[in-house]
Amino acid sequence: MHFHKYEKIWLTFGMASLVLFLSIVGVSAFSQDHTPAGGMTTIDPKKVNETAPFDKPGVTQLDDDTYQVAIVALAFGYTAPELKVPAGKEIIFKLTSTDVVHSFTIDNTKVNMMVVPGRITTKSYTFDKPGKYLILCNEYCGAGHHMMFTEIEVY
Amino acid sequence: MIAAQDRKLALWNIGVAYIAFLIGTLCGLLQVFIRNDALQLPSWLDYYQILTAHGVLLALIYTAFFIFAFFITGMSKSIGSFGPKVRLFSWIGFAVTTAGTVLATIMIVSGEASVLYTFYAPLKASGWYYVALALYVVGTWITSFALVGHYIVWKKKNKGQLSPLFAFMTITTIALWIIAGLGVVATVLFQYIPWAFGMVDTINVELSRSLFWYFGHPLVYFWLLPAYMAWYVVVPKLLGAKVFSDSLARLSFVLFILFSIPVGFHHQLTEPGISNFWKFLQVCLTFMVIIPSLMTAFSMFATFEIAGRKKGGKGLFGWFTKLPWKDVRFTSIFIAMAFFIPGGAGGIINASFQLNEVVHNTLWIVGHFHITVGTPVAMTFMGLTFWMIPYLTGRKFTKSMQKLGFIQVITWAIGMLLMSTSQHILGLLGAPRRTAYSGYNNHPSALEWFDGILTNHVTMAIGGSILFLSAMILIYIVVMSMFISPKAVREEDFVEFPMAESDKENTPKWLENWWIWIGIAFVLIIIAYAIPLSGMIHHAPPGSEGFRTW
Amino acid sequence: MSQKKQSTEVNLKGTLVSVFIIGIIIIAMWFAVYGMYVAR
How many CB pairs under 8 A join A and B? Predict the structure, then answer.
């Protein structure tokens, strides 16, 4: 098998670029905690409303700098009383579904979480700017999928 | 010309492919107008039914039938006419796949299966929809095994010899398809069907999603590899050249067997149930599958440059002007390749772990697959269609058809450029995919998305309309070359199958040792999947009952 | 001509430049989206 000299140059360059991309995302993810939404906690999808923290959905202050937001997604909306959180504080979003798969996606942020029944998805995010952010479902969930949205106010 | 019975087999496959193409593209046209709020559907039809039909008919049905037509034609041409058994099983495979297709279409049209082509549980369609999907996969397997049988017959007659490049690549693609199909067949047979018919009450959702994506990513390589086959084997012939390097072509294909399967988690990066370690491991494996595409890019340009220089092209880029631009068979495929540059680059972004949060399930993804499967793959298939149908029917590929062919590929390129650019930008702004018309109650963010020059509703609608026009021109060309164009009589009127010569003398024999590649592929699959999947089974939450939310 | 000879002698400067243009497109697009990710 023979590689042309230029092909060797190209493949070396290409693979080096790929290693660079992987290093950037890898280091940023694992050393600075910029991992995508996820989590390994399970929940009984039929007992969501009796299971903490979803028995009292909404915003809870955990300590001076941390807030937790627990929300249940269901066709076609989110059970969340008024969502108001402060800017500059860490917000931990916890989501689950009582029916099909949904998403919880806050426009113009890194919060883009799949919500899977039987699982709790977690994502931590700090808002920089106050304002009203659109939240929507971007995973097809049925006839009313495009009507599934809400809002969060950052103060 | 290949044996009459093999031609018939290929033509029937092409026929079904283009019926699916016709209905599928019509659904696409309806979608852009519904999204604009310019079209109101009758009450018995809804957006998500049309979206399901569009995805299934184009991504699954058009591709698979066309691919098998191409394989049948090329295998018969490169390693000889099919024997009676191969032919029989090819027909059985065709019949089973078609039965699955018809059943799935009936389920979608009757509103029993508005679950899209990803059919994520616990959305629960009619059980017959899952039966239809199983029939589709098993049908393609039967045809696949028929082609493998044909290859084995050739191998026995030609002991110790490397097979022709076309046959090698066909078998590679089939190996990939069969291994990939195991995932979807497992979830459909053991999870969806018992659940949809009420034999069990609940389904393990995360497991079903993971098994689907174990299949879902190699599925895109099942579309791409036949296009690459055309690029490696057909294009050099059109340029009057040989394959740039037989061994590198084969090497890039075996790398696809290894690395296109253990990578499905990169479609599940933002969901729970898979730990970051396993997600990132599969991200790294996904990056490995980029390498054979980098090799392919080099081989293509090298083929162009060598051919162009032979024809007198001087300087750094003089060869470029010497390429056969007036030959629609070449120009179509060249445009297809050009679209794959941003397409491939976008794919790298999608797979880049947390960067996926920017694009996941936004319109960017829709734009992405319209400039990967929707143009590089589909337009390569169009470029093949132009000569393959006349080749199979013994009709002429007339001057007027060639001109129409140009109009068709150029309109497709323009329409796709408008639509996909718009979709990419909208996705980056945050507009979601898979939605009917919605302004989210006129939320300012949503209004902002559709405010740009390239991102307003009109651009997408114009793009979609041009694409539909292009599709109808293609259907016209297909019908003409199937049934109406004049029969070729004189020798020079007969259309040939352009299959380039490929020098095999420096190609190492181990490249065709399938056991090595399939063996390594399974080792990689076990490394990437065994622990996370067994975790999903052993630490599963209570399962989900089915929901019908449409 | 054997394949080995052919591929070492052949002039592929245009190919090298072309693939590097692809490489630059890939890198530019990737960093553009990476920039968006960081900014969010």
Answer: 209
Cα B47 from Cα A121, distance rounded (Å): 29
> Which tens digits make up the pLDDT trace of B219-244?
999 999 999 999 999 999 999 999 99
Residue B395 known to be catalytic: no
Distance (Å, rounded) from C-alpha A39 to C-alpha A52? 16
Residue with tokens 């400039």: B371
CB contact under 8 A, C15 and A109: no
Taking the C-alpha atoms of residue B88 and residue B82, their distance in angstroms, rounded to an integer, is 9
| Pick from B184, B258, B265, B176: nearest CA to B225 | B176
What is the pLDDT, as a whole number, of residue B473?
98
Closest chain B residue to C11 measured between Cα atoms? B306
Closest CB to B506 among C4, C25, C36: C4
Q: Is B424 an active-site residue? A: no
Q: What's chain C's length in residues? A: 40
Closest-CA distance, B5 to chain C, in angstroms, reads: 37
User: Could you give the percent of chain B with pLDDT greater than 90?
Assistant: 91
List of residues 6+ apart from C9 with CB closer than 8 A: none
pLDDT along chain B (550 residues), means of 10: 95 98 95 81 86 94 98 97 97 98 95 93 96 97 98 96 97 97 97 97 97 97 98 97 96 96 97 97 97 97 96 93 96 98 97 96 96 97 98 96 97 96 93 84 86 80 94 98 95 94 94 96 97 96 96
Rounded distance between C-alpha atoms, residue A137 and residue A145, angstroms: 7
Q: Coil, strand, or helix at residue A79?
A: strand
pLDDT for residue C2 is more than 70: no
Domain that holds residue C27: 9-39
Whether the CB of A131 is below 8 Å from some CB of chain C: the reply is no
- A2, A9, A110 ranked by CB distance to C3: nearest: A2
Q: Is B490 among the residues known to form the active site?
A: no
Domain membership of residue B34 (yes or no) is no
CATH number at residue B371: 1.20.210.10
Q: Is the ipTM reported for this complex over the cut 0.90?
A: yes
CA distance B20 to B222: 18
Domain that holds residue B404: 324-512
Q: To which CATH superfamily is domain A48-154 assigned?
A: Cupredoxins -  blue copper proteins (2.60.40.420)
> A84 vs chain B: nearest CA distance in angstroms?
17
Alpha-carbon gap, residue B255 to B293, rounded angstroms: 10
To the nearest whole percent, how much of chain B has pLDDT over 70? 100
Residues in chain C with CB shorter than 8 Å from the CB of A109 are 40
User: Counting Cβ atoms within 10 Å, is residue B159 exposed (0-12), middle (13-18) or buried (19+)?
Assistant: exposed
Q: Cβ of A4 and C8 within 8 Å?
A: yes
Neighbors of chain A by Cβ distance (3+ pairs < 8 Å): B, C
Active site residue B217: yes
Q: Which amino acid, one-letter code, is at B449?
A: W
Q: Which chain A residues are closer than 8 Å to C3 by Cβ?
A: 2
Nearest CB to B305 within list C2, C12, C29: C12
Question: Is residue C13 situated within a structural domain?
Answer: yes
Catalytic position from the list B370, B381, B397, B450: B370
**How far is the C-alpha of B7 from the C-alpha of B82, rounded, in Å?**
11
B421 part of a folded domain = yes
Query: Of C3, C30, C37, which has the smallest distance from its Cβ to B503's Cβ?
Result: C3
3-state secondary structure (DSSP) of residue A73: strand
Residue spans of the domains in chain A: they are: 1-35, 48-154
Kindly state whether C5 is in contact with chain A, defined as any CB-CB distance less than 8 angstroms.
no
d(C-alpha C33, C-alpha B356), whole Å? 10
Question: Tens digits of per-residue pLDDT, B421-444?
Answer: 999 999 999 999 988 877 788 888
